[in-house]
Write a structure and sequence with these properties.
- The chain contains seven helices and six strands; from the N terminus they run ααββααααβββαβ.
- The chain is rod-shaped and about 130 Å long.
- By secondary structure, the chain is of the alpha+beta class.
- The protein folds into two domains: about 70 residues; about 140 residues, Roll (Nuclear Transport Factor 2, Chain: A).
């Protein structure tokens, strides 16, 4: 209701207007003017109070929304998982966050580490049966069931060079010399092997080898697969040959 309408309503209630029923006009006096001014001030105060109440409700709503969004952000995990590749001596070979594995440079480092670690675990022979079993479990976790590489490794373990029988008299520690990519999915790894008997004496001269590894990338989909092969790096095909050169040159 506007101020003028409110004045008219008050005057109508009090019987004061431009004229009464007999047509007599009332003369406005200073007291009436003071009363009207006071009414105006009261109306303005009421309107101000209403506006501040609206602002208070809006501020409360905004504060509640901000608290809710802050709680939502606080619930988001902030831990960034990292994959660390280590060699047989516990030395770090490559480090990369799990989120960055799709980047070309980081993927190259991880695949380099996988290729070299695969050869190291595959060719190593340890007198400690627990370590030998761990090596073989690692190798088979990188071999798809129906791959050519799995058949090749089975032939190597069970026919060509049985690690369990060899471990009864000697150990073998491969030493990776170099590894590089020869195509998009193929790596060449070169290494040297030294055979040491159980008395700690070297047997014969070190032998040098090179291998061709055809890789297959298949990210893990189950928790058990993630534990065994977190990167999803597999060997689809595998071969190697002896390098005819002095051991100190390979």
């Amino acid at each position: 209701m506007s101020t003028n309408k409110l004045k008219e309503a008050i005057r109508s209630m009090l019987g004061m207007g431009e004229s009464n029923k007999e047509g007599k006009k009332f003369v406005e006096n200073p007291f009436e003017r003071t009363r009207d001014d006071n009414d105006d001030r009261q109306i303005l105060l009421l309107r101000h109070a209403q506006n501040w109440r609206r602002m208070a409700f809006i501020a409360i709503a905004l504060a509640a929304w901000a608290v809710w969004k802050q709680s939502e952000l606080a619930a988001i995990p902030k831990v960034v998982p990292y994959i660390v590749e280590k060699d047989k001596l516990g030395r770090t070979v490559a480090v990369a966050s799990a989120e960055s594995l799709n980047r070309a440079a980081d993927a190259e480092n991880v695949q380099f580490g996988e290729a070299t670690e695969f050869i190291t675990h595959l060719r190593a022979v340890s007198a400690d049966m627990a370590v030998q079993k761990k090596n073989m479990d690692y190798v088979y976790s990188r071999l798809p069931d129906s791959s050519k590489a799995r058949g090749f490794v089975n032939q190597f373990y069970h026919v060509t060079r049985d690690p369990w029988k060899l471990a009864e008299r000697a150990t073998i520690m491969p030493e990776i010399k170099t590894a590089f990519r020869v195509s998009e999915n193929t790596w060449q790894v070169e290494w040297k092997e030294t055979t040491v008997n159980l008395k700690g004496q070297q047997e014969g001269l070190p032998q040098c080898y090179k291998s061709q590894i055809t890789q297959l990338i298949d990210p893990p989909k189950k928790e058990d697969d993630l534990r065994k092969n977190s990167v999803g790096w597999f060997v689809n095909d595998l071969s190697w040959a002896t390098m005819l050169m002095p051991a100190d040159k390979c």
